[in-house]
Model the fold of this input.
Amino acid sequence: MRLLCPFCQQTLTLPDDQAGKAVNCPHCSQAFQAPQPYIPLAADPPAAPAPATHPAVAGPPLRTQAVDITPVSSAPSFDNLPDMPGVPAGPGTFRGLTLRPEVLAWVPAVALTIALILTFFRWAGSYPAGYPAYTQNGWLALFASFSSDAVAEDMLKMEGKIQEKIKTNWWLMFYFPLLIFGVAVAWAGPVASVLKLKLPAFAQKLWPYRPALAAVFAVFTLLLLSVQWANGFGIERAITELAEAEFAESKAAANTPEKLQRWEMRTSAAVASMQLRTTSWLRISWLAHLLAALAVGLEAVTALRANRPPIRVGVSA
Done:
């Protein structure tokens, strides 16, 4: 027999002997009771009228008609029903993911933890010939510091000059506290659920606001990191300012468009020779923040759906 799953609305094909029994949808794994097949009842034969006994009533004899009341031997099959508009002609196949709330709760915790770990990896720096000459991770950028390669410093001797120019990245002063608290709040939900922890009274009052608080931390850390990345890190700005200072005299003497063009080209060539760039670790960190923000958003949507089936993402063929 063919029927629609009451949860995911996918077309199912079940054996006839499953009618009236509890079954599981192979697409969304939800349990429901399969309906009983429709069995038309046999018509009862019409009752024969009683013979006339009144002497005054006369007429032809009454005739009766035989009715076939052979019982139905088997339940009818629903496999050959005509196609209906809006209903797939055959069993559908769903390929994708089911976003269950108990799984979504772990995603922000893991993603923000990865982002915190990546703050100790190189984020930006100077990479002449592909070697990390002068670099910064998240914490060094916060405290206006950097690390240098011994070979590069022996050749370039720019460590002292960079130290004079480098400045604190102020956006990171807000980023790091929010990230640390965000990791703690994100882990609190799934850990308390798995260990079945009994929370103190003050924590129980704040617990309903935990998802919203985790969403604030996830979204704002993503925004702060994006703004800092767009503005550039201290090591990048310091080296750029050094290149511009090297040609400051030629800039002052650039009193024609041609001379100004030459100054800009020399400065650009000097900066390009230092090969300033951000690293893949920064990109992975940003993607981890984006994943955390998306996960808390989906978790909030799932909570609003109450007892409805979980969200499914994929393709139905």
